[in-house]
Amino acid sequence: MTVTPFYQSLSSQLAGLLTGERDWLANTANASALLWLELSGINWAGFYFLHGDELRLGPFQGKPACTRIAVGAGVCGTAVKTGQSQLVEDVHAFPGHIACDAVSASEIVVPLYNGDRCIGVLDIDSPQIARFTEQDLAGIEQFATTLLAHSDLPGN
């Protein structure tokens, strides 16, 4: 799917923001802040990093969140287990959904890879049912690719 001009611009903004900085923690912190500022209709944007069999909370914007999520559990854990991005129109209908914030209604999760090894996920929540589209998914996947290209990744 073609990435919309909005998401092309968002990825360009991220690339500019990260120019000269390769630190993974700093870059994910700034990436979550940029998503928070630029995306409308969201209530959480951030990262979880893979440690063994669980995801652990990383930099984010929004309300306090679950600190640990088992691989295979909820939308984030499913993204890691399947290796595929998740676009969920109604999280309450998602089997095993973990309600870190009961207000969240839809979610998009993109797994992050260092080579062939998953290192975590980018997670964005919205209080609106069906907030995210296939165009949003393509744009967020491009955003994640930009982040990965500008960062020294865990495990290197």
Automatic annotation (TrEMBL):
InterPro entries to which the protein is assigned, alphabetical: FRMsr_CS, GAF, GAF-like_dom_sf, Phosphatase_reg/MetRdx
Top-level taxon in the UniProt lineage: Bacteria
Annotated organism of origin: Microbulbifer elongatus
Annotated ranges, domain GAF: 9-156
TM regions (residue ranges): none
Family: Belongs to the free Met sulfoxide reductase family.
Protein's name in the database: GAF domain-containing protein
Pfam families reported in the protein's UniProt record: GAF
